[in-house]
Design brief:
The protein is of the alpha/beta class. It has one domain: 3-Layer(aba) Sandwich (Rossmann fold). It has helices at about 15-25, 35-50, 65-80, 100-125, 145-150, 155-175, 195, 205, 220-230, and strands at about 5, 25-35, 55-60, 80-85, 135-140, 180-185, 240-245. Strand 4, helix 4 (about 100-125) and strand 5 (about 135-140) form a beta-alpha-beta unit.
Amino acid sequence: MDKVLLVTGGSRGIGAATALLAAKRGYAVAVNYTSNSLAADEVVRAIRADGGTAITVQADVGDEAQVLAMFDKVDAKLGRLAALVNNAGIVDMQARVDEMSVERLERMMRINVIGSFVCAREAVRRMSTKHGGEGGVIVNLSSAAARLGSPGQYVDYAASKGAIESFTIGLAKEVADEGIRVNAVRPGLIDTEIHASGGMPDRAFQLAPTVPMKRTGSAQEVAQGIVWLLSDEASYVTGTSLDVTGGR
């Protein structure tokens, strides 16, 4: 029986690449999306066309009631959760800290940080041997911004990803003897649509010369790191953040 994986924000970018690759590796995948049902449906169609198992699950991870309903649907449609990729996240328009509203900051932290906490909480309740589970794996999406700070652009986003890294370390230690591994992946400049939502669709390519490898990364390259951390090949890896940054 296929291991069940939930990928939040799985309809595009890194999330979609992860869902597709994990399905090829034998996971039954729940593809979460917030509003773009057509994109999520396309990911599921591609997985099923390749002989895999997948469903879509709508939920805004910043809303606890929707997260609870999402996990219930995964339980009912696919069975016991074995893996979670906390990929859903947002970036806002570039701005300095002295220009940021409380509404912007609260939205950023609610989705990027609290959403990841609540999804991980529900995953642990299903995976932990303490709760009668059989173990599992959680991979959180951080960002090179957590190290770089993103001055003049996205300090709030960078701070949210710094929180994700502390969360990863703490949760990993908390559940290490309950059969659960928890790690993070720290993508660098990746060619995805998230840059457009921050008002800079060409940002990755503009900054590519600052990367030691002199190019942007692809969503597929990040997905390969995520799926490795999900796999038994990473069985002794927990509490770690894996850079996929081209050396940046």
